[in-house]
Design goal:
It contains 4 helices and no strands. By secondary structure, the chain is mainly α. The longest helix is centred in the last third of the chain and has 74 residues. It is rod-shaped and about 115 Å long. The relative contact order is 0.10.
Length: 193
């Protein structure tokens, strides 16, 4: 008995790990990969623009600055789009407002004058990746809602359509079994007399 318990616990643990891994893999394929592709596309466009305007800060520093803000926008967009809670949208709106205000303040700062060509591109990347994240997250939310509706529909059909038909079929089988038993009992009583 003790030998069997660790194997059952191991099997349960392995099933949980496999379930977590499948959830992680699904999340990566459905949420993270599309956002990373969108951010890469946005960064590609901004890198072409940066290459043409040749900022004094340097291309690598400019791209890393823009990439950071694009990732902030993408992740917050996915969270806001996929969330079914109203508070998440409000909190993320406030965070994006603060980040946008920071970029606007940096644009007006005289000491950061050499970053001025890069800051509008960072703001554009932030907003475009937020929009892309909202689209991806909203699609995921719609999928979850549709799956819930489908599950409720199947449950309703099972309880209200197939359930009574199955109940009638089982009653007919039980009635037949009872009649056969009564017939055998009557025959046995008739023979014993």
């Amino acid at each position: 008995m003790n030998d069997q318990q660790p194997s059952n616990a191991t099997a349960v643990f392995d099933a949980q790990v496999e379930n977590y891994w499948l959830n992680f893999e699904y999340g990566m394929l459905v949420l993270a990969l599309p956002i990373l592709l969108c951010v890469a596309f946005i960064i590609g466009i901004t890198s072409v623009i940066l290459w043409r305007i040749r900022p004094r800060v340097g291309l690598l520093q400019s791209l890393s600055f823009i990439t950071a803000f694009a990732m902030i926008g993408g992740v917050s967009g996915v969270i806001a789009g996929a969330s079914m809670e109203a508070i998440v949208g409000g909190v993320l709106t406030a965070i994006l407002g603060i980040v946008s205000s920071l970029l606007t303040w940096l644009f007006g700062k005289e000491t950061l004058r050499m970053w001025r060509p890069v800051i509008p591109l960072a703001l554009i990347a932030l907003l475009m990746s937020t929009l892309a994240g909202l689209i991806v997250g909203g699609a995921r939310r719609a999928q979850v809602i549709a799956d819930g509706i489908k599950a409720e529909s199947v449950k309703f059909e099972t309880q209200n359509i197939y359930g009574p038909a199955e109940l009638d079929r089982r009653r007919a089988i039980m009635k037949k079994c009872i009649e056969e038993r009564d017939a055998r009992t009557a025959t046995a009583e008739c023979i014993s007399q």
